[in-house]
Amino acid sequence: MTLRRSIFTLGALLVCAQMLPAQMTIYGYINDASTKERLIGAVIRIGGTDRGAITNGYGFFSLPDVVLPVVELRVTYIGYESKRIVVRSAEWNNKPLDVQLCRSEIAAGEVVIEADRDRSHTLSTEMGVVSVPIQQIQSLPSVGGEVDLLKAMQLYSGVSSGQELSNGIFVRGGNFDQNLFLLDGVTIYNPNHLFGFFSVFNMDAIKSAELIKGGFPAEYGGKLSSIISFAMNEGDLEHTVLKGGVSLIACRLSVEGPWSSEKQGSYLVSARRSYLDPAFKSKTLDDAGTNAFYIFDLTAKMNYTVTDDDRVYLSAYFGRDNFTHGESGLNQTLFDMNLIWGNQAYNFRWNHLWSSRLFSNLSLVYSDYFSKQSTSLYSLISAKEPSVKDLSLKADGEFWIADNQSLLFGGAIIDHR
Asked: Phi and psi at residue 21, in whole multiples of 5°?
């Protein structure tokens, strides 16, 4: 009895297996009907199911374990007419499909984008203040691969360059020397490298930038046209990060990270130097003179948390342009000229939180624009060393009266030479 039941069960399974549809693998290529070019990323879907495939980099697709006898495939690709393919088991010869798609025009409906106009600048008391987006500026085209903040600011209304390929800032008819340039609160008197070709502000070290074209706040003074303020990065407090870049003009390298494992402070050091020396050092045709020129700048910032209410900062910048030109003949120097100019700026700042509403800053600031000019014609030597130096002590505070109202106050003592 048991043997008969086993034979009957085995026979039933064989009958059911013969009645089930076969499983096959459908595969092939999707091509352009006119150029026969393989289409990458075409979509093939099995009708009535959620199964499908996408062609690879060679226009090939594969659909394994497809249940026949009849399968409907729908092939779609952007810019082409969709195509419907029916595969029957009786006709399937286990060869790759060759699907041709014809181009078609894409008819799109009307798209309307609506948004409220940003009236913050017209309703605010800071109508002339523009916050410069650093990330967007880094994606702008640049001359020689060096992204320049001052050149980007020339795109704003009321600001002009004065001449091509110059980073001069002329705001609403004012002159270039009527602008106040601040780097972490320190005045930069000559923010130019390479005779105004690009600025001294290294994008790797700048966190934010602000342009004030009118309605100057009371804490700024001494200039007539505009205020351009740059804030430096404070450094990564979690990880040590090394980054750099190479352009047609200069190379740059930056490193930032925490001071120690306690992570009470961080640092940032960013350096940049040009490699135009071979171009300028080339001798004249008669081998009677030489030229040399290079630029260099170093930007650094450090901060340390002393207590929960006290934090100290040290910002530093040093930049230099060096140009040398000489002419010789008859085994002696006929003419020699040396030009060296640059900026150095330092700011030691102490932040203190007195209460939940009162915050203060105390800063010791030093700024120096130096220039050395020396020329020699035969035995006649002329030398000049013009400079502008500032040493100042500044104190300012902010007291929050209400949620949207605060009182700013402060003062400064400046020794200007």
From this structure: -70, 155
